[in-house]
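Lecture notes, part 5. Sequence design as translation. It can be helpful to think of inverse folding as translation between two languages: the language of shapes and the language of residues. The source text, in structure tokens, appears below.
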């Protein structure tokens, strides 16, 4: 099995946006589930540590949860 290598380090930005919104991982996961995006705690943790690629649908949902623009996830990367 090939290991997925995310091509950009957006996990740090996801985590920092979560901190800015004073949310725990569990709270973010609950909000994602309410939006119809089923994600486990281990999968979400992998997103923040760049061990899994994020889906566009997840990125859009996180932008809504964090009250931010999609571009915020790419700060310092482009």
């Amino acid at each position: 099995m090939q290991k997925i290598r995310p091509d950009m380090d957006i996990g740090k930005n996801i985590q920092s946006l979560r901190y800015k919104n004073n949310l725990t991982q569990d709270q973010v996961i609950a909000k994602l589930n309410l939006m119809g995006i089923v994600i486990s705690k281990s999968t979400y943790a992998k997103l923040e540590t760049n061990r899994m690629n994020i889906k566009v649908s997840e990125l859009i949902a996180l932008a809504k949860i964090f009250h931010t623009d999609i571009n915020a996830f790419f700060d310092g990367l482009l």
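The translated text above is only one of many valid answers, since several sequences can fold into similar shapes. Residues 14 and 34 are 19 Å apart (CA to CA).
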